[in-house]
Structures are given as structure tokens and as C-alpha cells.
Amino acid sequence: MSLHALPQDKLSRLHEDALRQYRELQRKGLSLDLTRGKPGPQQLDLADAMEEALEGKFVEDSTDLRNYGGLEGLASARQLGAEILGTDSADVIAGGNSSLSLMYLTVLFAWQFGPADKSPAWKESPAHFLCPVPGYDRHFSICEEFDIGMIGVPMTGQGPDMDRVEALIRNDDRIRGMWCVPKYSNPTGAVYSDETVDRIARLGKTAHPGFRVLWDNAYAVHDLCEPAPILAGIGEACRRHGTEDSVIQFASTSKITRAGSGLAWLAASEKNRASFLRHLGKFTIGPDKINQARHSRFLPGLNAVREHMKKHAAILKPRFDCVLEILDGELGPEYGSWSRPEGGYFVSFDSLPGNAAEIIRLAKELGVSLTPAGSAFPYRKDPEDKNIRLAPTFPSLDELRQAMEAFVVCVRLATVKSLLKPAGHG
Amino acid sequence: MSLHALPQDKLSRLHEDALRQYRELQRKGLSLDLTRGKPGPQQLDLADAMEEALEGKFVEDSTDLRNYGGLEGLASARQLGAEILGTDSADVIAGGNSSLSLMYLTVLFAWQFGPADKSPAWKESPAHFLCPVPGYDRHFSICEEFDIGMIGVPMTGQGPDMDRVEALIRNDDRIRGMWCVPKYSNPTGAVYSDETVDRIARLGKTAHPGFRVLWDNAYAVHDLCEPAPILAGIGEACRRHGTEDSVIQFASTSKITRAGSGLAWLAASEKNRASFLRHLGKFTIGPDKINQARHSRFLPGLNAVREHMKKHAAILKPRFDCVLEILDGELGPEYGSWSRPEGGYFVSFDSLPGNAAEIIRLAKELGVSLTPAGSAFPYRKDPEDKNIRLAPTFPSLDELRQAMEAFVVCVRLATVKSLLKPAGHG
Hints:
The structure is a homodimer.
Chain A: H1 8-28, E1 32-33, H2 41-45, E2 59-60, E3 63-64, H3 75-85, E4 92-94, H4 99-113, E5 128-133, H5 137-145, E6 149-156, E7 159-160, H6 162-171, E8 175-180, H7 194-206, E9 212-216, H8 234-241, E10 247-252, E11 264-267, H9 270-283, H10 289-298, H11 302-330, E12 336-338, E13 347-351, H12 356-366, E14 368-369, E15 387-390, H13 397-420
Parallel strand pairs in A: 1-14, 5-6, 5-8, 8-9, 9-10
Antiparallel strand pairs in A: 2-3, 4-11, 6-7, 10-11, 12-13, 13-15
């Protein structure tokens, strides 16, 4: 039954219960962290053998891996990226250790010179981006650096609300881009439906010619369940609609091999690639080809990647199960709702509106760090103050259990408190 | 004796001789390359053992090298950079595989937000840079990307002509930066004198507060001779004059360990570092700490670096000797002048004014690639058309000898031709 319908004396009792539990937890002096989507040490162990993958062989395609050059990246590394992204290796640029950096440079170059070196440069107009929310804070930070306005679009279970997206594209000619995490979206876990992918590919037909979808396929192979959902190919869809220039894809091995020492890719049309490379050549002489070869030899093709990701899933699935067990067991829909992701790195929790910041504050006082309120929204403002991103991958299973048990107590306490004193909160 | 003084019939004979030699070379069908400052394979072999340096130990200072984080870089990597740059490790940020990228980002951030996040951002004024010439083409390309005007300042044997630099700083308030390669300057090989270093450190006292010297110490430990010249510490000099914010230093291991898979550093004042890191954090989550640890374990301290660089010198010294032997033996001052570097990667050749492009064209027709005419100048314009950068490191000694023998023939042919027909050249 809804908590709203409870008489105040029953709410008072619930509040006392929650407060008592909270105080017990306070005495424990916890120190736990559910903030960032970092792989855990066991996951990282899985790639330690990569260190031996080169076997002293530093030549590939008659290229000395140890010397300068090869701005597009090593052929074998481009091939690996193509298989993970489901595209052609000719479309792929293999970069350094960060897909975030490739996205940043993509925005910088379009902002400074115009997408595909065509006017108007984004800086000349007050460029705006569509930002499906909740979304990834680091995407939004890039927009802020370049003063690109951000327009939130709500996520559904099928991806962004496409009616809204299409209406905005139709009616607002300042829109130059859109962030997408199409598979196991950060943080909701949604996988874009075939229809959503198709409608996104069609945007390029009506949008401003300088419009670019930045398709951050960060969790392309990060499945937890079998059979895994299949994301439709955005590249194919674009070819079908003749909008190849409107989408730029990204991926990395940060959560496949090593976080920070992985390999990142960009895949795009010939025009977009040519322009990107022209400017990339001013930024760097070339990527770390030795690390690229380490990767392509350690993971020779998609089957090897899939086998490797099963080992990750075996480590991660119990963690996600633990989060859902505790949420399902301890909280009913009267306290909020939460995602049931089939892959990726997060569980997204929505409290009753107006409670997220207070839950996060309560947890912090217990020694449980949660991603700051509003993080998943442009300008760090969650309009309903309800979204909390839970990142279960890094802590041990035992720490995770303790953190989640504390979390649900904080949710109960904040929720009941908000109903007890419905007015007067700052 | 000067060729100018020769009667035309003697010049004609010289021309015929040179032409005959040139035609003989044409029949050889050479294919040689003296363009870029790349280490040779033997040099790269020197660091192959780095691949085993980790010995499976992925933890340092209780940091898991395999995970995200550590924007400033690993402590041991910062320490290594500090020793190479002769500065304090607290001043140092250890980055990725490219000091060029660190310089690019430094310019970008100052351009977009202002140096040390202080107005005016460089983009708001028509920012200009002083560019000692001849200099490094990739520095100039960064300026071009951001529409930063470039003002050439001639190099002397002691560094840039400081009278000119000081006068420009005094009289032109658009100047926001200056490129420097202070040791074994690219391409002249000059080492900035103690006085030059001191005068550069003093510039910050009178220059615009947004002025920054980008001190690219690319060849800090790349000595060929003993005792090696010692570059005065720019950091100390700045502290002496209270101008710590006016200089940002860079270095890398691209020509110590591996080109493209090395380690790059930035060293700067606290204010400059804080601002750089604030924006760097939007660009990346952190550097490749595993590769940083490979480096700091393979080269534990400056003594190890110096020992390693002696092995490079043993490979490179005979190459530089070969270039100088052939230039000294085959050409007199009537054909041009050339540098006698004690380290670094280049020999700088100055033909008689007006001949460089023709020499490069003649060489190309023989199958000998030289850096394109004008490369070492802003906007690729050598005002006197005389400078040619020779890069002797990459070819084998035998290839180098052949290339240099062809080069001197081209120099003689172009020079004599220019005197035979002093007018009418395009």
C-alpha cells in the first residue's frame, strides 16, 4: 500500500524503526563506496596475461610497433574495434587509452572547425546537444567545457523518448549533437530498441547538416545474461537512410582489459574520419601501437572477446544479483523503482521525487559514498531529485552487501521523513 | 674562394661536373629518406627489455595500476620526469605517450579559458606567439589550428635572438606565448646559453600576465658528446625572478625508450598545474599507469637514464659524424653552412639564399626525401629559402652515406646553377 495513505502515527512508527536501524549502522563506522563504474581487481586479473601477449615480436604488417607513425592505428587493432562495434575495419580509427578523449576531440574539432571541416563551426552558433537523462556525467562535462547548451530528453526502456527527440530536432535549429549510450545505457541499463536505433539513424535526414550523434557504445559486449540482447547496427541503419555522416561511434576496452591502459576506437564515415584525422595529426604523431598489438594479440577476434566477457560476467552477475535481491527484498514500489540491467555497470534507482539528495546525504553520514545527487543530469540538476546511480562492480560482494543494506535503510528513512513532514524542507 | 667571383666558363665546367655526377646518381635509382627525426631500429632495441619490467607487479603506492584514476600520473613516473627535467616531482604531471598532446592541450586550455583560468582567454584577443626559427613544424601547426599568429625570431648559437624577443614583448601586447626547444634545438642543435635562459625567465616580469613560454625540452638527455653541455634550469631562474607562472616545461621518452609508446611530462607552477588538471579531467580519466610503471621500473632514476642514453649515443654518434664528414669534405663555405650539434636529432643545413627548395627538388628526383622546404618556419615559409633539416638517425649508416653523397651533389648543382643564371628563376 502507498505510504501516502498511511496515517501519521503509523508513519511515525516506521520513522522510528528506520531511525533506529540508521543509528545502529552509524555505530558500525562503515567506509564503503558505490560511486564509480570501476572494474574490480578480480576482473582486472583476467587481462594480466596480456603482458606476455607480444612475445617479443614488435613488427606487424612490416610496421615497427616501437616507432612513430600510423595515426589511424594498427590494422589488427582497428579490426578488433570493428568486430566489437559491428562495423567495417576501414571505418575505424584505433586510438589511445581513452574513448572519452576521442569524444572530446570530436567535439573540439567540430566546435573549432565544423563537423567534417564544414561551416558553420559549432562555436559560431549557440550549439546545443540533446542529452538523454539520466546519462553519463563525463559527456555533459565536455559540453560544458565548450559552452554547448544541453537539453535533457527522458530515457525510456527503449532508449531516449524519440517523439521528443524528433520534435526538438524539427523545431530547434540550434541542435548540433546528441549523446547516446545505446547498450546498457549509463545508468539506466536500457538497450536501445531496433525502432529507436532506426529513428536515430533517420535524424540525419532532417537535422542540421552539422548535426552529429555521438554513439558511445561503451558496453557493447558487456553482457551479464544469456541470451544477451542484441543492439541493432547504427552503421547499417545510417547506410539504409543515407545518413552515414550523422553518427560517430566510440568504444573502448577500459572495461574489457584494463581501465586506463586499454584501447579506444572511433568509427565514422569517410568524410568524418578524414576531417578527424586531419586535426588529430596536429594533436599527436600516433597512438601507442605496442599496446594496440598487446590487445589484438590477447583478444584475436570477437569470439575471444566474448569468451573473455563471460569471465567478467561470472564475477559481476552475483554483484548485480545482490543489489537487486536487497532492493527487491527490502523496498516496495512505495519507496521507489529501480532498473534490472542485463549488462553494463550500473543499477539506476529512482526514489520518490525530492528524496535523492537526502538519501545520498544520509548514506554519506554512514560512510557510504554514492554518486552525488544530480550527477546523471546536465548541469548536475536532477529536476525531480530522484535518481541515484548505484555502481556495484568495484566493491567486494561482502562490502556491496553492507553498502546496499545501509542504502535501503537510508531510502526508508528519507522517504518516511519526507511524508511525515511534507512541507518546510529546504 | 667565393663562387660568385668565378668567371662564367669556370662555373660552366663546375656545372657540367655536378650534372654528370647527378646523372650517375639518377641511374642508381636511390630510395632514401632523411625527413623525420625517428629513432632507428637499433635504438629501439635498447628498450625491448622494458616489456619485462613489470614482473607481474601491478600495484604501486597501494594503487592498482590496472584501474582508473590518478590524473597527475603515477608518483614514480612523475619522479622520473622531474629528474630528466631537473625539477621537483611535485611540479610534474606524467601523461600519455605524447608531449605534443600535452602542449596542444596547454594551448587549447589557455586559448579557451585563459592561462591558469584567468581572463582574457587567448581566443578573445588576437593571440600571437614568438617562434624561434628555424624551429619545429609541429609547434607551428598547433598555433595554426587555433589561429594564433606567429612571429619568427632568428635563432643564434645561444638560443633565440633575445634582443629581438625582448623588444617584441615590450612593443607588441598581443604576444601570449613563445615556443622553445632549449637543448639541441630542433633543428639547429643550439643549446640555450645561461644568459638566454635567464633572460627568458625574466620575460614574465614585463610580458602580458597571460604570456607563457612553452619549454619543449625534447632532447634534455640526448647527448652525443662528453662532457655534454649543461642547460641552465629554467625553473630555478623563474623562481629567482618570481616568474614561475610564465614557463611550462615538457619532455618525453619518445627518443629514450619507444617513439609512440613512451611517456610524456608537463612541469609547471601550482597555479598552472591546477588549471591544467581541472580541464584535463574533462579530457581523460587518467593516463596509462601500467606504461608509466614500465618506464619508471626500467629507468629507475637519472643515472639509469644517462647510462641508457650512452647506448643511444654509441649508435648515433657515427651517423652524425658521417653527415659532418661528407659536408666538411665535399662542400666549402661557398655552398652553405651547417650546424655541428653535440646532441639531439638533426643537422641544420643553410644553403646560399634562394637554393633550398631547388636542392630538395633535385634530391627528390634522385629518390632522396628531405623535409619539405620551409618546414622549419611558421606558415612553411622560409623567408630566405635556405634552411634544410637533415635527420640522420633513422637510416642505416650505409643508407645515410649514400643519401649524404647524393645531397652534396644536389647542393653543388643547385648552387652553381643559381650563379650561372642569376636571374629568371621562379
